[in-house]
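Good morning C.,

I know you're traveling, so I'll keep this short. The sequence:
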Amino acid sequence: MSKGVVLVVDDESPIRDILSFYLKRADYQVLLAENGVRGLEEMGKLQPDLIISDLRMPEMAGDDFCRHVKSNTATKDIYFMLVSALDGSMSKIGGLNIGADDMISKPFHAQEVMAKVDSAFRIIAMQKEIKRQNVVLREFQDRVNNEMELASRLQMGLLPALPGIAPGILYTHRYLPAEGIGGDIYAITPLPDGSTALMIADVSGHGVTAALISSMVKTSFESQLRLSQDPHAWAVGMNQDLSRNTLAEQFATAFLAHLDPATSQMAYVVAGHPAPFMISCSGGGKPEQLSGKGFMLGIDADLPFSSQCAPFNVGDRLVLFTDGLEEVEREDRTYLGEEGLMEFCLDLPADAEDAAMHLVNQVQAYNGPATFSDDVTLVVVDRVN
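The tokens, ready to paste straight into the viewer:
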């Protein structure tokens, strides 16, 4: 079986003959041509793996032949050895500058040429293997990208549909996962008595694993709603679910709330999550952060949680977010933080959609030119009646 195909191009018949003899004896398939024009014709019949070409030839010299081969996308990867009778390093540099992969000086020993040929074919074999692996890698990457795109669409399907309307409230969101899919999730669920359950959560980590756990968080939340209308009971139940079904290093922060338009009250639990901002219609549009803090979900099944209560009147606005929106840092190491984010909430547009866009744009401008390094979720909830 042939080791490979070698094209020998030289206007001297004895040189073609001697190289052909040694190459064939070493189990290479040999093509012969007396100049570059004939070499191109031979390449049209069978593409070689390696070309050994003289520099000085009639009709098409070796340097022009080399340029032609290396400028063609179909042949540019063919290993090209240029043979020259010129002495000195400058001739070798010149040959390499026009694209040749190696230079052979005349007069040469056939054994020297064969050693270079064998070395070249080891390189050719490695290049072919790299190309093969690159094809496999690209196919794998394409599959991963397709699956990630599908997973992203499925995850977006877990979010509430927009425009969002629930009893007495309007809401909108901005969801910006750092890696196409992420660990942020939120839910706004109308309850049979006309109240609304609200949840925003941030799972540790990024990517596929975090996205999988975020779907578990949402499923657990929906399960708890069938058992109780008390955010404290939701937190206890969700914590037990995650503690049983996730690894020790995996956890989620969450804000859970029950909005009751009949009483204009909001009962809530802060579970290791940034507390939302309340912009009260009676407070002149100044945002205030809700009180409360607590343990994250999923660390220990027996952790305690505490509930809080706050008024939520007609005209009030609730701004919920994950820490990716506040934990941004400029190149000068200036950190935005909750105080900086709260300043961006001053004088937000009245329309919830415009307010969400304005707030994200402000943070992006602060963070620019860098992109968000963490998943970012923002939810704006307006009490309308």
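Safe travels,
E.
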